[in-house]
Design goal:
heterotrimer, A mainly alpha (about 140), B mainly alpha (about 120), C mainly alpha (about 500), A: 5 helices, about 0% strand, B: about 120 residues, mainly alpha, Helix Hairpins
């Protein structure tokens, strides 16, 4: 298939910035609007934009379907695993305070890991939803 | 006795109820499955409004403690609705996936046509 | 031990969730079954340990993330929730071995791992609804279980399964949305989502029946009734049960509607019952009338079904009527009868649907005309089926009799003689639809089409025999069922205003 040159080049130029913006939203979630959910949606948006402008094959090459589909449970495992780590360190499920010598710092660390899990799952889910619907017609 | 002034003061509830009824009506009255899902989505959206409207305080800011602000909006309903939105997205995605499969299996997404086809078999 | 004993409420929900994620990650059908089996067998141990603890020392409260309620999410296990947790997890554990062959037979190869993943998610949701003490958290678990259920139903081979799943999705989502509207109104009134806290805050100062409370009650009643298939809201159930893979029907009929009933009981008796004089509202009368209507109308429809699965699905609607009848009676004996019927009906319906699944596994049909004389070809299966049928009718010596006895006692306590006759009358209709099937399967000559049918392999037969035996056992020894239901009912009614 022939894709528009301007769109192709333009997309490839802004792709890294979209990813960077996703990471900014992810890590800015502590002190402003943002977090794993939004970041995951933005990251998935990057893949979808690539698929729309440059074709599905290229998108499959940078985000293979098997990887994307495994990201969904992986994020859940990260999230639930963080909670279990709380139990193993002697506190309640999802209690992040034992992660660091200082309770507030422990919470910050815990929520960082949880948000990473959310990012992985949301990005994986959005992308695999897109793939699933696009693949149907082929 | 509720008066017109009461009604106007609580106009946001009227909007919520209007959306709720619109959504529910579409779900019940339309035979096209995609339209049904659209109605379902509107119905769910009205619930987001129901929660978020009373939580927003006019002049209140996002609940990040700062000495410059004294009035904050209630964050909890916003967070709850974030969860509900995720659930809603999952529901609509699953519903659309089913519609795609139904279209492949039956060749139509009109409910009455599908019922007719099943009656024949 | 320290990581296990105090954290049982968390493990109860987290283990199936981790299992589901693991299955989705591995995507191998053999491994998926192994994980699902391990999780299913672990769950009743956890639930049983918690129920034992509750009976010994009182309710367990577990604070997720160590945030104390009402700010954080609280997992709360009391006698009622422990009772339902044990039921759900035990049914899952008993019927799981049946799944291996049945699912391999009915679900396409590539989808089997997803099947077990969805089952584990559904289990997570169902256990979560029962264990959580947070109204909104219950909604999230409700949707987790419902969404996975829609997928499970859609995995049926028949294309009508897709349609059934879609209809279930629409009605189920409307139900869940009604439920959160109700919870939203309660939150606007009280500013709290913790169930115990809501009940405390509603308290006596709301005795003048605030219209908002009644509206919340109405929304929650309708929403949850859609999920539990209370009579006029049962439209999704027959199709979903009839076209879902056999094993899914077994699991759903025994757990999903029961958990929704639990939620209704929780709201009626632990939240609204504490806050307002809800016996004064028409709520209980409405529930009573609808229950009686379910007992009769659904039973009558069941009489005219030729598809065995569909007949049992309508019978489920009728049996749910008995359970809600107990809720509507709202006295000690009546509520005990309703609660004990949750367990008794779950066990006998699971046995019946397992038998139907076994028939489908051998004969590839569950239409009544194809099953003439099947009793002589599959004697053990059909004996278990017959025991389940007798339980449905409420024959003395089966667990069904115990529940109906308590219900009749509850009606008698209220002085409602008519209701006692109605309970007996609807049992007679059950006798008609059951008798019709039993006549065909036992007394007719076997046809050539089923000549080579035989009892299914042991992994499928054993769960069936265990459940049929339980139906008889709980007809004689009621200590575990009616005994605990009695304590739970006393707990619930004790809090009423």
């Amino acid at each position: 298939m022939n894709y528009d040159l301007v769109l192709r080049v333009g997309t490839k130029l802004i792709l890294p910035f979209i990813l960077l913006f996703a990471l900014y939203v992810q890590f800015h979630g502590d002190y402003g609007p943002g977090g794993g959910f939004q970041a995951g949606a933005i990251a998935a948006g990057m893949v979808i934009l690539l698929a729309v402008t440059c074709g599905l094959d290229l998108a499959h090459r940078i985000a293979p379907q098997s990887v994307v589909q495994r990201m969904v449970p992986l994020g859940v495992l990260v999230y639930a695993g963080t909670g279990v780590a709380g139990i193993l360190m002697g506190k309640n499920y999802l209690d992040y305070s034992p992660f660091s010598h200082n309770s507030a710092q422990g919470h910050e660390l815990g929520i960082l890991v949880v948000e990473a899990g959310v990012l992985i799952t949301v990005a994986g889910t959005m992308t695999s939803l897109f793939y699933a619907f696009v693949e149907r017609g082929r | 006795m509720p008066t017109l002034a009461d009604f106007i003061e609580h106009y946001h509830y009227a909007i919520t109820i209007f959306l709720m009824m619109t959504g529910l009506y579409i779900v019940v009255a339309r035979g096209n499955m995609v339209k049904k899902l659209v109605g379902l989505s509107i119905f769910q959206t009205s619930v987001y409004l129901l929660y978020v409207e009373p939580a927003k305080i006019i002049g209140g800011t996002a609940p990040i403690i700062d000495p410059a602000f004294t009035v904050y909006s209630n964050p909890l309903p916003h967070v709850l609705m974030l969860t509900a939105i995720v659930v809603g997205v999952a529901t609509i995605a699953l519903g659309l996936a089913l519609v795609v499969r139904i279209n492949e299996a039956y060749g139509t997404i009109e409910e009455d046509e599908i019922f007719d086809m099943d009656r024949d078999t | 031990m320290n990581a296990v004993w105090p954290h049982l409420p968390a493990w109860q929900v987290v283990i199936p969730l981790l299992g589901a994620a693991l299955v989705a990650f591995l995507r191998h059908s053999g491994a998926a079954f192994a994980v699902a089996l391990a999780v299913s067998w672990l769950m009743p141990l956890i639930a049983g340990a918690m129920l034992w603890q509750v009976l010994a020392t009182g309710p367990i409260s577990y604070h997720l993330g160590s945030w104390p309620p009402p700010w954080g999410i609280e997992y709360r296990v009391d006698v009622l929730s422990g009772f339902v947790l044990v039921l759900v997890s035990a049914v899952g554990a008993v019927v799981m071995p049946f799944a291996r062959r049945s699912v391999a037979f009915e679900v396409e190869d590539g989808q089997q791992a997803w099947f077990y993943c969805m089952y584990l998610l559904c289990l997570t949701g169902l256990l979560g609804i029962v264990i959580t003490g947070d109204a909104f958290n219950a909604f999230v678990f409700l949707e987790v279980s419902s969404l996975s259920t829609y997928v499970l139903v859609a995995l049926g081979r028949d294309r009508r399964a897709l349609l059934a799943a879609f209809q279930y999705l629409i009605l189920g989502t409307i139900g869940a949305t009604f439920y959160i509207i109700g919870v939203g109104l309660l939150y606007l009134l009280t500013g709290s989502l913790n169930m115990v806290d809501i009940a405390a805050r509603l308290g006596p100062e709301w005795a003048d029946h605030s219209r908002a409370i009644v509206a919340a009650l109405a929304f929650i009643t309708v929403g949850v009734s859609l999920k539990l298939a209370l009579f006029p809201l049962h439209a999704w159930l027959p199709n979903a049960y009839a076209y879902a893979p056999s094993w899914v029907t077994v699991f759903l009929s025994a757990t999903a509607t029961k958990v929704a009933i639990y939620l209704l009981v929780r709201y009626y008796f632990s939240i609204f019952g504490v806050a307002i004089e809800f016996r004064d509202l028409p709520e209980t009368e409405i529930i009573l009338v609808l229950s009686v209507a379910a007992m009769f109308v659904a039973s009558l429809i069941a009489v005219f079904q030729t598809d065995l699965k569909r007949m049992l699905a309508y019978s489920s609607v009728a049996q749910i009527g008995y359970i809600t009848l107990g809720i509507g009676l709202a006295n000690q004996a009546g509520l005990t009868g309703g609660l004990v019927h949750i367990v008794n009906h779950a066990l006998m319906k699971a046995a019946l649907f397992l038998a139907v699944g076994a028939i489908f596994f051998r004969v590839r049909s569950v239409r009544l005309p194809d099953l003439a004389g099947i009793g002589r070809r599959m004697p053990v299966t059909m004996t278990a089926f017959t025991i389940g049928c007798l339980g449905l009718v409420g024959t003395p010596g089966t667990s069904g009799f115990i529940s109906k006895w308590y219900l009749a006692l509850g009606a008698f306590d209220k002085g409602w003689w008519v209701l006692v006759f109605l309970i007996v009358g609807s049992s007679l209709i059950a006798l008609v639809y059951v008798g019709r099937v039993l006549e065909v399967v036992w007394l007719r000559e076997p046809s050539a089409a089923i000549a080579d049918a035989s009892d299914p392999p042991l992994s499928m037969l054993l769960p069936l025999v265990v459940l049929a035996a339980a139906t008889i056992y709980f007809g004689f020894d009621t200590g575990w069922t009616a005994g605990i239901a009695d304590i739970a009912a006393r707990d619930l009614l004790g809090g009423l205003r």
